[in-house]
Protein backbone atom coordinates (compact mmCIF):
# COMPACT_ATOMS: atom_id res chain seq x y z
CA UNK A 1 0.00 0.00 0.00
CA UNK A 2 1.39 3.38 -0.90
CA UNK A 3 1.03 6.45 1.27
CA UNK A 4 -0.31 9.68 -0.22
CA UNK A 5 2.28 12.18 -1.30
CA UNK A 6 2.87 15.22 0.94
CA UNK A 7 1.35 17.55 -1.65
CA UNK A 8 -1.87 15.48 -1.71
CA UNK A 9 -2.14 15.60 2.07
CA UNK A 10 -1.56 19.35 2.08
CA UNK A 11 -4.21 19.86 -0.60
CA UNK A 12 -6.66 17.68 1.32
CA UNK A 13 -5.90 19.63 4.52
CA UNK A 14 -6.50 22.94 2.76
CA UNK A 15 -9.79 21.62 1.37
CA UNK A 16 -10.92 20.51 4.83
CA UNK A 17 -9.99 23.89 6.32
CA UNK A 18 -11.80 25.71 3.52
CA UNK A 19 -14.93 23.60 4.05
CA UNK A 20 -14.77 24.32 7.80
CA UNK A 21 -14.40 28.04 7.12
CA UNK A 22 -17.46 27.94 4.82
CA UNK A 23 -19.53 26.16 7.49
CA UNK A 24 -18.50 28.68 10.15
CA UNK A 25 -19.27 31.63 7.86
CA UNK A 26 -22.70 30.17 7.07
CA UNK A 27 -23.39 29.63 10.76
CA UNK A 28 -22.37 33.21 11.58
CA UNK A 29 -24.62 34.59 8.83
CA UNK A 30 -27.55 32.56 10.18
CA UNK A 31 -26.94 33.81 13.73
CA UNK A 32 -26.79 37.42 12.55
CA UNK A 33 -29.96 36.97 10.47
CA UNK A 34 -31.83 35.38 13.38
CA UNK A 35 -30.71 38.12 15.76
CA UNK A 36 -31.74 40.84 13.33
CA UNK A 37 -35.11 39.18 12.68
CA UNK A 38 -35.77 38.89 16.42
CA UNK A 39 -34.89 42.54 16.97
CA UNK A 40 -37.12 43.68 14.11
CA UNK A 41 -39.99 41.53 15.39
CA UNK A 42 -39.66 42.91 18.92
CA UNK A 43 -39.41 46.48 17.64
CA UNK A 44 -42.53 45.96 15.53
CA UNK A 45 -44.46 44.50 18.46
CA UNK A 46 -43.56 47.46 20.65
CA UNK A 47 -44.45 49.93 17.91
CA UNK A 48 -47.77 48.17 17.25
CA UNK A 49 -48.91 47.69 20.85
CA UNK A 50 -47.01 50.42 22.65
CA UNK A 51 -44.50 50.04 25.43
CA UNK A 52 -45.44 48.35 28.68
CA UNK A 53 -47.06 50.60 31.25
CA UNK A 54 -47.89 53.37 28.81
CA UNK A 55 -51.43 54.68 28.72
CA UNK A 56 -53.11 56.18 25.73
CA UNK A 57 -54.72 59.62 25.83
CA UNK A 58 -58.20 58.14 25.29
CA UNK A 59 -57.86 55.81 28.27
CA UNK A 60 -56.64 58.66 30.45
CA UNK A 61 -59.55 60.86 29.37
CA UNK A 62 -62.08 58.11 30.16
CA UNK A 63 -60.63 57.46 33.60
CA UNK A 64 -60.42 61.12 34.56
CA UNK A 65 -63.99 61.86 33.46
CA UNK A 66 -65.33 58.80 35.27
CA UNK A 67 -63.63 59.69 38.55
CA UNK A 68 -64.54 63.36 38.52
CA UNK A 69 -66.97 64.11 41.33
CA UNK A 70 -68.40 67.39 42.53
CA UNK A 71 -66.45 68.86 45.40
CA UNK A 72 -68.11 69.95 48.61
CA UNK A 73 -67.28 73.24 50.24
CA UNK A 74 -65.70 73.24 53.67
CA UNK A 75 -68.97 74.56 55.20
CA UNK A 76 -70.91 71.44 54.13
CA UNK A 77 -68.59 68.92 55.75
CA UNK A 78 -68.84 67.71 59.30
CA UNK A 79 -66.03 66.28 61.31
CA UNK A 80 -66.37 62.70 62.49
CA UNK A 81 -63.04 62.64 64.26
CA UNK A 82 -63.25 62.54 68.09
CA UNK A 83 -62.73 65.77 69.95
CA UNK A 84 -59.57 65.24 71.98
CA UNK A 85 -60.25 68.02 74.47
CA UNK A 86 -63.66 66.71 75.66
CA UNK A 87 -63.26 63.03 74.77
CA UNK A 88 -66.47 63.00 72.70
CA UNK A 89 -66.95 62.45 69.03
Describe the structure.
This protein has a domain of 43 residues. The N and C termini lie far apart (115 Å). It is rod-shaped and about 120 Å long. It has two helices and no strands. It is mainly alpha-helical.
The overall strand count is 0
Q: What does the largest sheet look like?
A: none
Class from secondary-structure proportions: mainly alpha
Q: What is the N-to-C order of secondary-structure elements (H for helix, E for strand)? A: HH
Poorly predicted spans:
none
Using the alpha-carbon principal axes, give the shape. rod-shaped
Overall pLDDT score: 78
Count of helical stretches: 2
Gist of the model:
The protein has 89 residues and is an all-alpha fold.
Secondary structure: elements and pairs:
Layout: H1 6-49, H2 57-67
Keywords:
0% strand; 89 residues
